[in-house]
Write a structure and sequence with these properties.
CATH class of the largest domain: Alpha Beta
Strand content: 5-15%
CATH superfamily of the largest domain: Peptidoglycan recognition protein-like
Number of domains: 2
Strand order of the largest sheet: 3-2-4-1-7
Number of strands: 7
Shape: globular
Structural class: alpha/beta
Largest sheet: 5 strands, mixed
Helix content: 25-40%
Radius of gyration: 29 Å
Number of helices: 7
CATH topology of the largest domain: Lysozyme-like
Order of helices and strands: HHHEHEEEHEEEHH
CATH architecture of the largest domain: 3-Layer(aba) Sandwich
């Protein structure tokens, strides 16, 4: 502290002349330099911490392997004011790194023009009987290949869904409208549309639909205990993360083909020929 006081006195007297400099003992110089360096360092850390809190580093989206966004029918096509329930604001993750494929376990003999009514019925069941705050799936695809917006929050954003217990974070859920157990035909228009949505959503994060990604279970009711990290296909079946037969044996068997189509839409080389 004696060094600091003498330094301050020297500063008040004005710039050091060569005469004054000769009168300053050389043994003080290392201490003076250390004090000044410490002050500058502390100021720099404080400034960096304040700047980091006020201006977080932006997330840079990847530029490669983007797929074209497919046409998506908005919620207003199937959800009217009479059916809509009040709900909390949407929740978001930082990005989508995996997609889970589902089937709705509903009848297959619907007319495609009637798909909005089918989705409205699913919404009523999930928000009514199950007391969910919204439909769980982010997207739904009918047998004619029409893609519908499901859960609210914006199709372009990483909305946290309620489609795969334990693995809703950083994932999106795509539901094929119908029941696709063993032996049931799966329309090509449907699988192509599923591939297009998966390619687009995963492409926003630069994820290859044919790759495997690391996910962490957030719920012990899934196949894995809470907090367990596990690798899964980037384009996975619902049963990969939960004890279920969803999306049915017939649709599960088409997953390699769907992944290959999604990869091709991203400009990648498919490992399976569709």
């Amino acid at each position: 502290m004696r060094v600091v006081r003498r330094t301050r006195e020297a500063l008040r007297r004005g710039p050091l002349t060569s005469g004054r400099l000769r009168r300053v003992p050389l043994g003080w110089l290392p201490g003076m330099l250390a004090v000044l360096a410490l002050a500058l360092c502390a100021h720099g850390i404080e400034h960096f911490a304040t700047e980091s809190r006020e201006r977080p580093a932006p997330v840079r989206p990847p530029a490669a392997h983007r797929a074209t966004r497919p046409p998506i029918v908005p919620r207003t096509a199937w959800l009217d004011r009479a059916t809509a329930r009040s709900q909390p604001p949407p929740r978001y993750d930082d990005r989508v790194v995996a997609v889970f494929l589902h089937h709705t376990d509903s009848p297959n003999d619907y007319d495609c023009a009637d798909a909005p009514r089918v989705i409205r019925h699913l919404y009523a069941g999930q928000t009514g009987d199950r007391s969910w705050d919204d439909i769980g799936y982010n997207f739904l695809v009918d047998r004619c290949g029409t893609v519908y917006e499901g859960r609210a929050g914006g199709v372009d954003r990483p909305v946290t869904g309620a489609h795969s217990q334990g693995f809703n974070h950083r994932t999106a859920g795509i539901a094929a409208i119908g029941t696709f157990t063993a032996g049931v035909p799966v329309p090509r228009a449907m699988t192509d549309a599923i591939a297009a949505v998966a390619a687009w959503k995963l492409g926003l994060a630069g994820v290859d639909p044919q790759s495997r990604v690391l996910l962490v279970s957030s719920n012990g009711r899934s196949r894995y205990k809470t907090g367990t990290p596990t690798t899964m296909p980037a384009l996975a079946a619902h049963k990969d993360g939960f004890m279920t037969s969803c999306p049915g044996a017939a649709l599960t068997a088409r997953l390699p083909e769907i992944r290959a189509t999604a990869a091709r839409l991203q400009g990648r080389t498919p490992t399976v020929t569709p």
